[in-house]
Amino acid sequence: MNRLKELRLKMGITQDELGRMLGVQKAAVSKYENEKIGIPAGVLEKLMDIFKVSADHLLCRDADGGIPAMMRCRIRESGMGDAVMIPMVGMVHAGEPMLAEENITDYIPVASGEVSNGDYFFMEVVGDCMTGDFIAEGASVLVKKGDQLRDGQIYVVRLGDEVLLRRVKRIRKSLALIPSNPAYDPMIVTDGDLEIIGRVVESRMRH
User: Fold this and answer.
1) Which of 101, 108, 144, 178 has the smallest set of CB atoms within 10 Å of its CB?
2) Whether the model pTM is above 0.70
3) Residue 42: is it exposed, middle or buried by C-beta count within 10 angstroms (0-12/13-18/19+)?
């Protein structure tokens, strides 16, 4: 059961009543409980005050299985057994560079066995630069944060203030950022100018 729904039922209030306490519509409360949308920061603060619990408790971020700062909940309805709710943190451009808005906008369930030994997050792909690797615009890429550079793998990288999705190859003291769509040219950068945010371990289309 969703943690918010569990707390609401324990308090004996309806979705409509909780919506009035939060200043939102009943439909919004229903979407929070069904995990169709993420809980905005302002609403989360009100919920913490109403139920006298921490944000970690509300969002199921209880430390478990060596996966810190992740939402670990048993999702019975999904058929996935134990799953980790991985945050969607913004967008990564797969064409021309753009800033990633590093705000959690949603949470996506992933089988816990697929995200062990590290911190993970999702980003939405904008652009068609990586279509040769079957990463289309609108796809969600699962990223392992701060993973060690593996030559030829696909990474989310930061170049100055820009966040990009590229295959990264080492060329002596430089790094090549290689698109898989021939319409785009590779970029050559010095190692020290590039920050590896994380390695892409999966791409999925959301329906």
Assistant:
1) 101
2) no
3) exposed
Residues 106 and 166 in one domain: yes
Count CB neighbours of 167 within 10 A.
Answer: 19
Q: Is 78 in contact with 109 (CB distance < 8 Å)?
A: yes
Tell me the CATH number at 24: 1.10.260.40
Between CA 191 and CA 145 the distance in angstroms is 18
Q: Can you give the pLDDT at residue 95? A: 62
User: How much is the pLDDT for 101?
Assistant: 45
In whole angstroms, give the CA distance from residue 135 to residue 35.
25
Specify whether the CB–CB gap between 26 and 15 falls below 8 A.
yes
Q: What is the CA radius of gyration of the chain?
A: 19
Distance CA 80, CA 173 (A): 44
> Domain of 167?
82-205
Closest CA to 99 of 201, 206, 197: 197
Q: How far apart are the first and last CA of the chain?
A: 23
Same domain, 154 and 112: yes
